[in-house]
Amino acid sequence: MRSMWNTAKAMAQQAPPERNRWVDFLRAFSILAVVIGHWLVAAPYIDAAGEVQGGHLLGIIPWTQWLTWGFQVMPIFFLVGGYSNGVSWAAQLRDGKPYAEWFASRIQRLINPVFPVLLAWAVFAFFGTMVGVEREVVKLATSLALVPVWFLAVYLLVTALVPFSYAAWRKIGFWSFAWLAACAVLVDMLTLFYRVPYVNFANFLFVWVGIHQLGYAWRDGRMGGGRALLWFLGGLAALGLLVGFGPYPVAMIGVPGAEMTNSMPPTLALFALGVMQAGLVLTLEPAGRRMLESLRIWTATVLLNGMIMSVYLWHLTAFVLVMVAAWLAGGVGLHVEPGSSEWWLARPVWFALYVAVLLPLVGIFARYERGFGPARDGRPVPHWRLVAGLLMICAGLAMTAAISIASPFGESGVRWWVVALPFIGAALVGFGPVYGWFKSKHR
Q1: Other CB atoms within 10 A of residue 201 CB
Q2: Which of 159, 253, 252, 167 has its CA nearest to residue 209?
Q3: DSSP 50
Q4: Which domain holds residue 170?
Q5: Of 40, 124, 175, 429, which has the fewest CB atoms closer than 10 Å, so is most exposed?
Q6: What is the SS3 assignment for 374?
Q7: 8 A C-beta contact, residue 355 and residue 322
Q8: 239 contacts 273 by C-beta, under 8 angstroms
């Protein structure tokens, strides 16, 4: 840890003075908030009959649904993504470099850390099935641990559209945001009032690309000062009206048993939350940048950003491992009713256990954020391979989250086709373990 801190400190000291450190801080903050939120809402317990129940805090204690207005911070990640993608794509245009080179590198940075966690849980599902663990138990553990991968599929699609969304921003400015907001309104109207099936999935793009557009506005200095406060107040007012007088639930994530969810797919209410959060964090930017002048805080930010995807992808694996250990130890700590005073008082102890298990996992697997197998050869990838690879990666990640890699049928207990899709897609783009194997066979 001391070596990692010293490395991060050296990198922090070398950061150019014009770098917006608040962007890096918000990236780390948003992922940590997601981690804490997941650890908090997942509340398994053993009931009076001795059965393990997969409790969900938002369903057990309804008032906690209001907390999701603070813990559902994926909009901040897309806001930061808009800022960062705007910077890198503008530089790409300025240097006259091809889109394929830019996007292939973005895919590689995002997907490299996924390979180890996907392989680890495929191996678990296989051997768990072989030794006779109930398939429902295997599926429950695997599905929970791999929940985070859905976000990467959506973020990759949003990033793929950067040339178009950035061009729209440069040409019509905030109207590009307004058109996306109008499309999100139309989608919700078709879904809620006319019951048109499946159209709500379009909001994965309309909502998240819309928040991403605000990142461009931030980069261009068009959301600072008092304007940021107006965005915050406007988003808060819109969210209050949509939840208070509209059909939208309070919770900004899914609640078991609820008729409607604001996040899967996203709704206009989640769009309003994103606007509110964007206004809030940009209102706080001047104070935040002053805070980050502290070398210690800035070094911690650099350190965390260097392993942020590993923290995100492995935090629920750590949770599952702790829960399994507690169950094997006779259910120690799991007989406490979620939401009781005893349960709340025990949260710091449980969180310490999650962190203790997560840190070694991050220490082992963070290296894959820098690459998995041989590096790309730098040559532009043909567009057909780029598109096909992107679609295969996104389909694999989406299916992992939607139906799980654990299979209720077949001898292996694994949906190998779901596991294989991201690997094959990465190979088409020109990186990853399958690509490395192919290159070694054809030298």
Answers
A1: 13
A2: 159
A3: S
A4: 2-111+147-310
A5: 175
A6: coil
A7: no
A8: yes
Q: Please list the residues that pair with 55 across neighbouring strands.
A: none
Q: Is residue 352 part of a domain?
A: no
Q: How many domains does the chain have?
A: 1
Residues in the chain: 443
Contacts of 387 (CB under 8 A, 6+ apart): none
pTM: 0.92
Q: How far apart are CA 322 and CA 71, in angstroms?
A: 22
Both tokens assigned to 301: 């930010």
Q: Is position 60 within any domain?
A: yes
* The pair of three-digit structure tokens given for residue 429, joined into one six-digit string: 């783009």
Contact between residue 333 and residue 350 where contact means Cβ atoms under 8 Å apart: yes
Which residue's structure tokens are 């706080």? 284
Q: Among all chains, which residue has been given the structure tokens 């942020």?
A: 308
Whole-angstrom Cα distance, residue 358 to residue 370? 19
Strands annotated E in 292-373: none
Cβ neighbours for 5, distance < 8 A, ≥ 6 positions apart: 299, 303
Burial class (CB in 10 A: 0-12, 13-18, 19+), 216: buried
Residue 434 lies in a domain: no
Rounded to whole angstroms, how far apart are CA atoms 145 and 319? 8
Q: Are strands 52-53 and 45-46 parallel, antiparallel or unpaired?
A: antiparallel
| Both structure tokens of 211 | 């928040």
- Whether 35 contacts 315, CB under 8 Å: yes
What one-letter code names the amino acid at 382? P
pLDDT of residue 374: 53
Which amino acid does the sequence have at 421?
L
CA dist 76 and 104 (Å) reads 24
φ/ψ of 137, rounded to 5, equals -70, -45
pLDDT value of position 334: 86
- Structural domain contains residue 387: no
Report the candidate in 439, 435, 432, 434 with the shortest Cα–Cα distance to residue 111: 432
Angstrom distance (rounded) from CA 289 to CA 39: 29
Residue position matching structure tokens 């997942």: 42
Specify whether the backbone of 55 is left (phi greater than 0), alpha (psi in -120 to 50) or beta. Answer: beta
DSSP 224-247: -THHHHHHHHHHHHHHHHHHHTSS
Where the chain has pLDDT below 50, the residues are: none
Q: Are 414 and 126 in contact (CB under 8 A)?
A: yes
Radius of gyration for the alpha carbons in the chain, expressed in angstroms and rounded: 22
